[in-house]
Structure formats: C-alpha cells, structure tokens
Automatic annotation (TrEMBL):
It comes from Flavobacterium flevense. GO terms for molecular function: endopeptidase activity; serine-type peptidase activity. Coiled coil: none annotated. Gene3D superfamilies: 2-enoyl-CoA Hydratase, Chain A, domain 1 (3.90.226.10), 2.30.42.10, 3.30.750.44. This is Peptidase S41. The keyword Transit peptide does not apply.
C-alpha cells in the first residue's frame, strides 16, 4: 500500500472528520421513522416513484435517495449524517468493542497481507502466526496480488465465532510456506490503550474513544493501578474524537462526589435532562489531571468539562475541538442509518462548548487547521474567547463557552519549528508502515533483545531517523524533520517498541519525554 505523502493533511482531516462523526450521543432506537405527514414529504416520495416507474433510462433509485438524504442533512449541521449500510456495519463494530476474527494487525505491503503483529491471546497468536508472516490464502482463496480493498480482506478473515479457517502463510525469515488451521474467536477492540504507573504514586490511563466497553476497561485499569499505590491519576483524552456519551458520564461518576452535576442536555422544545454523579465513585479523592488537545471532542469534552466545572481536577493541554451537539441514531430497514442532532449538551456551569458552524461543514472542520495559522497551538494568548460566554465554577474559576474546553494549564504543541504536515505525520499510519518495512528487512537485528537492550540500541544511533528523514524529504520536499529530531526519534522508537513488544511498550517510550506529562509530574 503506497501513500502519497503530499495528501497527509487531507488524510488527517478525513480521519478527524470520521472520528468526530463517530463521537456523540448514540441512542439507538427502532421506533423513530420518517413519516409522510405533509405535502412536501409526499412530493419527495412521489418524485422518486415517477423516476422509478417512468424515467426513460435505467437508474438506481437507491443511489438517488442516498444523495437526497445526504443533501438534506448537509443543510442542517456538520454532525447530522447519513451512514450507508456498508459503513454502518464497520461503525457499529468499532463502537461495540469487539469483533470475531483471527486476531492480527495487518498491513497491505506490495499487494500482500503482511502481519504486523498477532494480537495477544488471539487465535493467530495461539496457532503460531508471527509478525512478518504473509497471509497468501484463506480457505484456498488468493489474497495477494489482487489489490483487494481492506474491507474485502477483513471479510475473508472474519466470520462466525468458532468457525474454522485454513490459512496458507509465507514465513520470510524461514523462506517457506506454512499452513495453519484455526478457529475464529472474539477479538476485543480496546478503547483504553494503556494503564500504567508513571511513578510510585501517579497512574496514567489513555482512552482513545468511548465505545461500549470503555467504562469497564477504565474501571478495571483504575482498580488495578490503585492496588499498585496510585494516589494521583492522569486521564489522557488527546486525539479522542468521542463516542458514547453514557460511557463518559460513567467515568465522570467515578471521579465526582454524590449529586454533583455531570452534564445536562436541552432539546428544541426546551426540555432539560440533567445527569448527576452517584455515591459509587472509586476516585473521588486524590490529584486528578485530564489531558486534551485540539482533536479531543464530544464525549471527551463532556468528561473534561465535568471535571473542570466541578473544580475536581486540572485540565492540561490545548483547546479542545468544540462539539456540543447530541446525536440520536435512527435506523432504516436496509441497514443504513441517520445520525440526527436532537439536542445540545451543556457543562455543569451551563456553558455550551459547541463552536460555530454557520459557514458550512468544510469551513467547520478546517477551523482546526486555522489554529496552526493563528498561532493558537503555540501561544495561549492567541486563543480567542468571548467575554460574553464567561462562566464561573463553584470556587470562582473563570471558564469559557463557545468553542471547546480551554485548558487550565496550556501546553504548546511540540513541533514549534516544524511544517504543519510534520505535526500530524508522526502520529499517522505512515510511521507504522515505515517501521514495519524496516523490521521486515532487519527483524533478526532485534531478536532476543530485552526491552532495556532495545532502548539502549535505539537511543545509541540515528540510523532509523536518517532513513526516515530521507524517505520523507524525497516524497514531501520542504518538511524539516531535523528541527524536531528528538520528537521524531521518539515516535519512531515507540513504533518499533509497539511492533516488537506490544502496545504498552509504545507508551513506555512516548511518555518518558512527553511535554504534558513532564509538566504534570513537575507541578
């Protein structure tokens, strides 16, 4: 799979848009239907019938209807969207928290399914499949050299729980083909990436989205870390585009005292629904810090707002995205769905953090790019807040509405001297693909190394930084990675650690020099 690096900002914008679309209050309901109740609706339905029955050429009226729905929703707000049946399956699976499959992270490398890593305790790992293996056939069906899209490949590897699949694998390190028979199993899609101790008293939990299992994952990590001596807690919501509102509320309940307001919503009829904390909180005392950035949105902002407005903890980072709209998902008979904005949510002090969207969807999502240009990501004084949207917490702290959560402690982005594309480049999939290709050439160089030996090896050389810099400069002239060499090396080393030792190792590398973490630990 080749990626044209000059389109990286476009890729990131698309990814962010998808993340924000997924984020929201998803209240599934089979009772909500579009009813033909007036002449305008009748006219639309009649027009479709005319085209279907009378138009001179053959047309797919389903595609016309889909485009019509898209156009109608585009007149509303950026978060009211139509989801076709094929996309709805993937979106639902992502939010469900698990799927049935063989349990591998894979990468399409030169038109072949290359295993980046078998997932721990998954069917592939138990069967003996290794990182670097190429999956050539699944039940006799050829998977290489066909330029199959990822969803087609995934369909071949997924199936019913307990169903058997025969894989033909080429192991490059041994230069031979191996056949595996394994049974598909339930593979968790973790929404909590890491839960670890930063020192003897400080726990760190990283949440990448709010799915069905997020509260459960958070709770188990919190309990485990408290047993290890955690008296302080850092919750990392950076780049978390949101998800289920209920999961964020449940986590807030663990942090707030009984009867403290977490969030409230207001619909078009002015109906207000308030949600309060209960008595069950597992971390109502102790130092609490929440990390956010410009890509933290929706449910992330609900959690951060609840902590900030109740004076429960400190918000550290940069101004969040600014999504304060509530969506309800309504299903159609063909498996498609519409997510319709049905209310606004407000933080406990009464502020809406929804940023303006009257200039249209394109400008709405480009607003994040403008934060680079106006210097907001580098300088707290560049953050534009409206004095008319000023609110006070119970202890008298000033907080603002109108466009995201403004942090209590501002931390500038680490790439102060780098190109805008370089900022996102280091956390994109390109780094993972680059590392896989390097390991594919030199995997034996790391064989048998302990994690400490690995770190020593990577820190002692600029070899992979130099290769990566040449690779980037060749394809994207003008990006000066050398200006942020230490940060670039950190992300490269971290991705090597992830692919060699697992996801936790990635954070062990990244967090040691993370600017926000350093500020929190030194306060």
């Amino acid at each position: 799979m080749k990626i044209n690096l000059k389109y990286i900002p476009v890729y990131i914008a698309i990814i962010l848009s998808i993340g924000i679309f997924i984020g929201g209050f998803l209240n599934f309901s089979s009772q909500n239907q579009f009813l033909v109740t007036n002449n305008s609706k009748a006219k639309l339905n009649k027009l479709i019938d005319f085209i279907d029955n009378e138009y001179v050429d053959e047309l797919n009226t389903d595609s016309i209807v889909n485009k019509t729905v898209d156009n109608i929703l585009s007149q509303l707000d950026p978060h009211s969207i139509y989801i076709p049946p094929s996309e709805q399956v993937v979106a639902a699976e992502n939010m469900k928290g698990d799927f049935v499959g063989i349990g591998v992270r894979f990468y399409i490398y030169k038109d072949t399914v290359a295993v980046i890593q078998p997932l721990e305790n998954g069917p592939s790992a138990k069967a003996g499949i290794k990182a670097g293996d190429r999956i050539l056939y699944a039940d006799g069906i050829k998977l290489f050299g066909r330029k199959l899209p990822n969803d087609s490949l995934s369909a071949r590897l997924k199936g019913e729980e307990g169903s058997q699949v025969k894989l033909t694998v080429y192991r490059k390190s041994e230069k031979k083909k191996i056949e595996f028979k394994l049974k598909r199993g339930v593979i968790p899609l973790k929404s909590v990436d890491a839960g670890l101790m930063l020192n003897s008293a400080t726990a760190y939990i990283k949440i990448n989205r709010f799915a069905e299992t997020t509260y459960e994952e958070f709770k188990s990590n919190l309990v485990r870390l408290k047993k290890q001596g955690a008296h302080s807690l850092i919750i990392d919501l950076r780049d978390n585009g949101g998800g289920y509102m209920e999961e964020a509320i449940a986590i807030a309940d663990e942090l707030l005292s009984d009867k403290q307001l977490i969030v409230f919503t207001k619909n078009k009829n002015g109906r207000i629904e308030k949600t309060y904390a209960t008595k069950k909180g597992d971390f109502e005392k102790g130092k609490l810090v929440v990390l956010i950035n410009e890509n933290s949105a929706s449910a992330s902002e609900i959690l951060a707002g609840a902590v900030q407005d109740n004076d429960r903890g400190t918000i550290v980072g940069r101004r969040s995205f600014g999504k304060g709209l509530v969506q309800r998902e309504m299903d159609f008979a063909d498996g498609s769905a519409v997510r319709l904005t049905v209310a606004r949510y407000y933080t406990p002090t009464g502020r809406s953090i929804q940023k303006p969207y009257f200039k249209g969807t394109e400008q709405y999502f480009k607003e994040s790019e403008l934060r680079f240009k106006n210097g907001e990501l580098y300088d707290k004084d560049s953050i534009k807040v409206a004095d008319s949207l000023k609110f006070k917490t119970p202890k008298g702290k000033i907080v603002y509405g109108g466009g995201g959560i403004v942090p209590d402690v501002f931390v500038p982005i680490e790439f102060e001297n780098a190109d805008e594309a370089a900022v996102y480049l280091m956390e994109s999939g390109i780094v993972g693909n680059f590392v896989f290709e390097q390991l594919d050439k030199k995997r034996n160089d790391f064989k048998g190394l302990s994690f400490e030996q690995f770190l020593k090896k990577m820190n002692a050389t600029d070899e992979y930084f130099n290769v990566f810099e040449k690779f980037i400069s060749k394809h994207v002239p003008g990006i000066q990675l050398g200006k942020s060499k230490s940060v670039v090396k950190r992300y490269i080393n971290a991705e090597f650690a992830r692919q060699l030792y697992g996801n936790q190792a990635y954070y062990d590398v990244v967090l040691k020099h993370d600017k926000m973490i350093k500020i929190v630990l030194n306060k």
